[in-house]
Amino acid sequence: MSWWQKFKMNFPLFKITWGRSVKTKVTVPLAEGAKKIMEKVMPIKTDFAPWMKIVRAEIGVKEVPGSGNNKRVLEYHASTTLDKNYDGKDSTSWCSSFANWVMEKQGIKGTNSAWARNWVSWGIALERPVYGCIAVYERNGPGGDSHVTFWVGENSNGKFDRCIGGNQADQVKESLYEKSTVLAYRWPKGFPLPEKSGPIAKPLS
Fold this sequence. Notes:
Blueprint: H1 3-10, E1 16-18, E2 24-26, H2 32-41, H3 51-57, H4 71-78, H5 84-87, H6 95-106, E3 124-125, E4 134-138, E5 146-154, E6 160-165, E7 173-178, E8 182-187
Antiparallel strand pairs: 1-2, 3-8, 4-5, 4-8, 5-6, 6-7
C-alpha cells in the first residue's frame, strides 16, 4: 500500500476534486492532524544524510536497569577515547558516544570524544538546521552540561526541535529540545549539503 493510500485511509475527510487538466486539487486545508499523519506515512528522504538510516535502526536501544550493562551502549562508548573506568558502564553519559558510533559506521570521522560539547566545533557550522545535522544543546543553564543529538525537524509551534539521539531518557529515541538552548547545528565537513530540506541550510561564513 502506498503512502497516499494510507493517508486517505487515515484521513477520509480529505476531499479531492479532479479538473480537466487531470491534476488533483485540495479543497480542504491541511489540518494539524493531517500533517501528523503525513509525517508518519510519507517516506523519509535520507539520501543526503545516509547516517540517519543507522540512527533510526538503533531506536529502542536502552540502558539496562541496575548493575547490568547493555553491550550495544558499550559499543557506542568504544568509538571514543573514554577512560576505561567509565566505558564499561551504560550509565555513563553516552549521547556523544552514540553520535561518534553512528558517524564511524558511516565512514565519517567524529570527535572521538565522549563529551557532547566537543561537537560544537566539529565539521562546519550551519546557519539553520537540516535533516540529519548534528545539534548540540545546553543543559542545566549556561556553563552546564551539554547534549548532542541528530536533528529531524521541529514541533508544531516551532519552539522545539525534534531530535533522535542516544541517552535520551536512557535510550535512543526522539525527543524535543528548546530552540533557545541550542549551541550549534553542525554538518560533516566535505559532505554535500542538500539544496533544500525544510529550512534551507547554509554554512556560516
